């Protein structure tokens, strides 16, 4: 690979020829054809090992977006699920990982294999430059508004918004520091268009948005319990014992009843360090009189009825 060609963003056939590659080189099995007329270094097997399915999906979308950016004109920008993935907004696993590229009317939307083009009116949202990738994308609030027509389950629309308004706590040299939210709740409200397909779903999702959920499953867990008639749990709760000692932060909690709910994602199982931290935290919570209910993907997404019954029984016993 020539030092003048960027393997992350791909290169055109014409660029490859000018760099001294032959046609045979450009058709070598070591190179991918991510889009018509483009070449890129093929990824090695196992590069997604250790990533969750959602993380691997975001990685693929980001790689494809960087590669397609070679083709993008100054009037084009990334949007919909592509922009959402680039911002790190929680998404379900998608049936189609095509790159969404939009233009302002009256320009013609781009077309091609692996590309979904859109024509958006000037008043429909904000376009910015991504601070890390340097790509033109719809702003976080606009990206969420465009998901109203694409995400099938209403919980996923809430989860995406939860991810946007969340203020993350990131470990720093002097303890945890807060990382600003991608947008505020009022930004999401302003981004909802007055007349457009998906508006009803967006308006119904907005009142259910909370700033504390750290992942899509946590939002699903909260909404599943609420829609089963249970009280709404608090999100991202710091727990202290009676002497004021910090015991840990739990995903969801009913503090009054000392009932905590912890979602066990793949990293809780595959990371020995995370597994040990969880054991220590849950042991400390139990000693302090808390009931910890650990939730898996199967319990939440496949058959939630036993989970709902377990939470209901725990609350009833604590009353």
Brief write-up:
The chain is an alpha+beta fold and 319 residues long. It has 13 helices and 14 strands.
Task: Describe the protein.
By secondary structure, the chain is an alpha+beta fold. The protein folds into 2 domains: 43-208, no CATH class; 216-318, Endonuclease, Chain A, CATH 3.40.960.10. Helices cover 38% and strands 20% of the residues. The strands form 5 sheets. Strands 11-12-13-14 form a 4-stranded mixed sheet. A 3-stranded antiparallel sheet has the order 1-3-2. Helix 6 (154-165) packs across helix 9. The radius of gyration is 23 Å and the shape is globular. The model has no long low-confidence stretch (mean pLDDT 88).
List keywords for this structure.
single chain, 319 residues, alpha+beta, Endonuclease, Chain A, 2 domains, 4-stranded mixed beta sheet, 3-stranded antiparallel beta sheet, 13 helices, 14 strands, 20% strand
